[in-house]
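#struct-pred

JT: dropping the chains for the assembly here, can someone run the whole complex?
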Amino acid sequence: MTGEYTCVIRKHELTAPDTYTLLLEPEQEIPFRPGQFIDLAVPGFSLRRPLSVTDCEGGTIRLTYQLTGPGTRALSEYSGETLNILAPLGNGFLLPERGEKLLLLGGGIGTAPLIFLAREALKRGCQLTAVFGFRSPDRTLFQKELAGLDIKTFLCYDSEGENVVSVLKKEGLAGIPFAACGPIAMLWAVDEVTQAPGQFSLECRMGCGFGACMGCSVKMRSGMRRICKDGPVFDRKEVLWESFR
Amino acid sequence: MTGEYTCVIRKHELTAPDTYTLLLEPEQEIPFRPGQFIDLAVPGFSLRRPLSVTDCEGGTIRLTYQLTGPGTRALSEYSGETLNILAPLGNGFLLPERGEKLLLLGGGIGTAPLIFLAREALKRGCQLTAVFGFRSPDRTLFQKELAGLDIKTFLCYDSEGENVVSVLKKEGLAGIPFAACGPIAMLWAVDEVTQAPGQFSLECRMGCGFGACMGCSVKMRSGMRRICKDGPVFDRKEVLWESFR
Amino acid sequence: MGELSVTLSGLTLDNPLIPASGTFGYGFDHADFFDVNEVGSFSIKGTTLHPRSGNPLPRIAEYGGGMLNAVGLENPGVHAVIRDIFPALSKVYHKKVLANVSGFSVEEYAKCAALFGREEIVGLIELNISCPNVHGGGMSFGTDPKTAASVVEAVKKVTKKPVYVKCTPQCPDLLTMCRTLEAAGADGLVLLNTFLGMRLDFKSGKPILANGTGGVSGPGVFPLVLQRIYEIYPKVNIPIIGCGGVSSARDVIEMMSAGAAAVEIGTQNLTDPLSIIKIKHELPLLLRELGIKELKNITGRAFR
Amino acid sequence: MGELSVTLSGLTLDNPLIPASGTFGYGFDHADFFDVNEVGSFSIKGTTLHPRSGNPLPRIAEYGGGMLNAVGLENPGVHAVIRDIFPALSKVYHKKVLANVSGFSVEEYAKCAALFGREEIVGLIELNISCPNVHGGGMSFGTDPKTAASVVEAVKKVTKKPVYVKCTPQCPDLLTMCRTLEAAGADGLVLLNTFLGMRLDFKSGKPILANGTGGVSGPGVFPLVLQRIYEIYPKVNIPIIGCGGVSSARDVIEMMSAGAAAVEIGTQNLTDPLSIIKIKHELPLLLRELGIKELKNITGRAFR
Ligand SMILES: Cc1cc2nc3c(=O)[nH]c(=O)nc-3n(C[C@H](O)[C@H](O)[C@H](O)COP(=O)(O)OP(=O)(O)OC[C@H]3O[C@@H](n4cnc5c(N)ncnc54)[C@H](O)[C@@H]3O)c2cc1C
Ligand SMILES: Cc1cc2nc3c(=O)[nH]c(=O)nc-3n(C[C@H](O)[C@H](O)[C@H](O)COP(=O)(O)OP(=O)(O)OC[C@H]3O[C@@H](n4cnc5c(N)ncnc54)[C@H](O)[C@@H]3O)c2cc1C
Ligand SMILES: Cc1cc2nc3c(=O)[nH]c(=O)nc-3n(C[C@H](O)[C@H](O)[C@H](O)COP(=O)(O)O)c2cc1C
Ligand SMILES: Cc1cc2nc3c(=O)[nH]c(=O)nc-3n(C[C@H](O)[C@H](O)[C@H](O)COP(=O)(O)O)c2cc1C
Ligand code: FES
Ligand code: FES
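RK: done, full complex below.
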């Protein structure tokens, strides 16, 4: 049930450059679907920070976050024992049918929610291909984890002149149904080069995270939609990229 | 040296109703005189909280504070490992000469700085009498501690119709040099019934605690004086009670 | 009537806690967190005659004392609210709402108010003459007392429901504004809407909000709002709903002490969706601490 | 000149960080914490012709976004400052100060400014026409552009030092005020002094400050001040010193991006006496992050 939960911090550590893994154990188990997010209260800040669930196993929520500004910096330095969250929020990815193909397209920290999606899709016996792009090899996320899963994986790096879209074209993946998360510029480009059905996980600055403030409402093809409550995952046919300029 | 110090919390517990003992160990030893105070940053609050030093032994600062409002409440619930202070601040009590008599007059949490004064005066072989008043017996502070020291002690309680001033008169103590700390009404009354030399430790809402803002400046007999920097201890001849109405 | 009940122009609320317009949607979203019937009442998202899609993203920024928003009055329009939203709302919510109305002309305000005035669920009309995030309308009505009075007069003609006016701190002479509104027939005041402000992006140096400026709300504005309520309360004879920066039960007590008959809570509903519930539970404890039996007796305590 | 240096009307500061008037005394108190020569310059406590003892206690209150003060311009008067304080100050402090002057008449401003204008240690005169905590003077000069202009004109006649005017957010039309001040000969603007506000005591329900109302400062006012700087910077041709709510190096960057040539820091000097030092150390790191060589190039970046 959507609600406010106090979570015990089970682990909180730097796992890649500027990137932290945070394991939270809520008072009671919260059911999550891949693509859903939590809204985390960072002590000392008025607005909560939305973070996608990277994975959720045995009631423990795994989050992966990148240092972005003062809020995530303060979070990384937080020394208390518990954190307060709102969860589960948003609609997740539509899961593929048993045995279907799915292409995971992730850019930077946008790879986080795709890990959860990958694990759930694998449980359904889906055939997965992942194209994950990062700025440079030292900033790769989830490399080991992917290696341990039955996923055909392409890692690419801006620093080496490659990115998710160039790999997508080069490897002829543009016809596979996809789920994508990453910077807007990447998603837009993905939309332009792919032909298959697809879903995008979007983000923007939020007021509430649960639909009350219209702070994240944006023009989509079917009308105004709240990224927090009607998303954050949207069908590719819905998204009007001009709204994100 | 006056400065900003990060202190490790060595102990932080409820030691009487609504009253906490907080032991802080600064990075380096800070020399304190009785009557001086520290200015404590409570996370989440803009202004620091001034607290008198109850005692200072082996570099560890003992503070005793009462729940008063949101700041002290938040402090009592603080779960971090360190706290930031400014110290030492203010001028302390003038210590009595070796072997002299000294009367300690304390009301409620105002008894805190008198403990430090008592210990230092005892080291000088002074003869001490203490009159400590509280609202009711269950709110008595430092009772055990006083019992372990060579101090003639009178405890009195509003709930039993007695207070510091009434005891002072009844016991004929009005001629002994005194040091007093407590509510303004009590101090004022002490000033009216005593004849001996005396010192008052005063308090008020402060901006900075170290003399920069004039937030605590008040008319005294010799002119405007800052309670934080020119006090908080003042000679009885200085204080104009009308300024504290 | 319980110890927390208050009355606004004949409308009795069992508690004075009113989620502020724009921070509670049309009541459905907070229902994920608690039974929304726990609120005293709530103010619906600012509604206009025609649907509005509001401002582009980003609409939200943060600062040390709260937040900024430039939503720009996105709403489905008064007809859709009455046709689609109210019937659905009545199924889960059994109290009255404050119908927050915005407009770009006197006629628009009057039309909306007339339509809302016929609705059972509407307890009172809240005229928002103070939105800083739309151009050509909204706030301009809030800075000139004469224009504002003409809105009130037009609205009073078309509805029997109590009409409250939500003022803007951008009004250069708020006291005159409030007195003029009272003289024009306003049944009450809501003090205040957001303060004009802005943030710049650290990297680009450009405004964060797509709209450039936005409305500042949250604890950072509390003492500013409190001062206005304290200033105006003794000078008018209509109730004031306090609004701005309230985030705790103590703030409610303080704002009512300054003269507020009830209190709207905005930003805090976003920071903590359960805040209203928490405040409602704490209020009776504070009343006991103060030795005051009924919360409504706190109103204007500063002047007694 | 280092990467942090800025210039105000010919006065070069090696960094743009200026402790704001009333939060740094006459420079001696922060010297307990650091070498005060680390500041770019500092503004002395608001000084009047005659000594003033200010308001009764309490003079200070707190809120979620900072603090309120109603010190009421306690100061020893311009003569004592020049005779006793400046000579002592010159022994420990080797830079210039901003001479913050308050008055209750045009003549008083002019007399004080004339006296300060002859002092070597005074880099520029800062006319405080904006103190909300004294009656009959201070702020009233800050709300009416004509009166304010007459102060500037009178002061410009009696001193060759640059004259900056510190404005109040209580001014109903700040843009007109600033343009009028520029036309009257002001060499620069300081935006802004404190915002009018108040707090009530929880127990008694009465105002906490003996003065009733007070001036609100601290992080809570930052986006309000930023908006005013952003609004006024493109409309005037004199430098703006930003002031209000700055508490971090990022805030300094943001305020300069909006148009400030230098930045005054007030409340944060009380919260953390070493804040200026910390900010000064962080600024070069932020410049590197932004790929900007000289801090002064940040000024007005929002408009490029
Ligand atoms: C649905 C959703 C899921 C997300 N999942 C993740 C995740 O798994 N890992 C991760 O590292 N980041 C994620 N983000 C982005 C993350 O919320 C921001 O990086 C974070 O809020 C930045 O806070 P800050 O204080 O460090 O930055 P600041 O820039 O100082 O933040 C200031 C304000 O802007 C907001 N903000 C700034 N950048 C973003 C952004 N990119 N998206 C949304 N709000 C922003 C902040 O929440 C805050 O309100 C997600 C965002 C959304 C909307
Ligand atoms: C020199 C000095 C020494 C002190 N020593 C002690 C001590 O040893 N133990 C102890 O319990 N208390 C002491 N106090 C009082 C203590 O500082 C206040 O109780 C505390 O600041 C209240 O904070 P609050 O947030 O709980 O209350 P609030 O009332 O919410 O505080 C709001 C603001 O008012 C100020 N304030 C409120 N009450 C007082 C007060 N009585 N004195 C000064 N400022 C106040 C706060 O600092 C804060 O800025 C001392 C005060 C001074 C000036
Ligand atoms: C996201 C958001 C949207 C708002 N939308 C409206 C609105 O549509 N109509 C209105 O009158 N006020 C609107 N407001 C103002 C609030 O109702 C309230 O007046 C303001 O936020 C101050 O209260 P607070 O400090 O408790 O948030 C909005 C505020 C926020 C934060
Ligand atoms: C305790 C205190 C005293 C002040 N005294 C003066 C003053 O004498 N003259 C003046 O021009 N401004 C005075 N101010 C206003 C500050 O200089 C500054 O304009 C204001 O605090 C806003 O900046 P801040 O938010 O960084 O504090 C005072 C502010 C405080 C907090
Ligand atoms: S962030 Fe509030 S509606 Fe989406
Ligand atoms: S509290 Fe600032 S001078 Fe004393």
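JT: nice. Chain A has a mean pLDDT of 95. The radius of gyration of chain A is 17 Å.
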